[in-house]
Amino acid sequence: MAAPQDVHVRICNQEIVKFDLEVKALIQDIRDCSGPLSALTELNSKVKEKFQQLRHRIQELEQSAKEQDRESEKQVLLQEVENHKKQMLSNQTSWRKANLTCKIAIDNLEKAELLRGGDLLRQRKTTKESLAQTSSAITESLMGISRMMSQQVQQSEEAMQTLVNSSRTILDANEEFKSMSGTIQLGRKLITKYNRRELTDKLLIFLALALFLATVLYIVKKRLFPFL
Q1: What helix, strand, coil percent values describe the chain, rounded to 5?
Q2: Contact, 33 vs 102, CB < 8 A?
Q3: pLDDT for the residue 1
Q4: How many angstroms separate the CA atoms of 17 and 84, rounded?
Q5: Averaged over 151-178, what is the pLDDT?
Q6: In which region does residue 3 sit, left (phi positive, over 0), alpha (psi from -120 to 50) or beta (all else)?
Q7: Distance between CA atoms of residues 177 and 187, nearest Å
């Protein structure tokens, strides 16, 4: 089973490596930073915090090295501490260079924005007349559109009145059609009734004729063939 002191040394080394990688990543972010200055300030605050944590862990590792019983293990740990300190100094140098590069880039961007702003002012001065002309043309166009819309409204009112008159005509025609429909239905009933009566009359005539013929045949039979 590992001694508590060895576990502490291992944890310190792991933390030192982690903080070292985080510092390197933040320094790269500073190199890539193009502004604004508040973003650079925020990144520098994070780097300072990581350096403090890294320095604290290196000090803990150095203290653990001094507390080692074996001289050989003590020297190995002290050599690791020295290497970590050198790496931290190298990171600090890279940090300063990254800040310098970033500030130069931000200054150049600010100068370019100032120049661009001056060009915009000149463009605004030269385009005032064209904007006034454009505004006048737009006003004329809007007035023309307003007149056109007024004409369209008037035409729509006339069309609506025509539709109202047409609706009245259609309603009158519908009433007349209803009246004619009633007359037609009455005529149809009368024709049907007349057809039925005609059929009845024909049937009665046929029966009367048949009766008459039967009577004639009976008389002829009695006269010609009395023995039958």
Answers
A1: 95, 0, 5
A2: yes
A3: 42
A4: 9
A5: 68
A6: beta
A7: 15
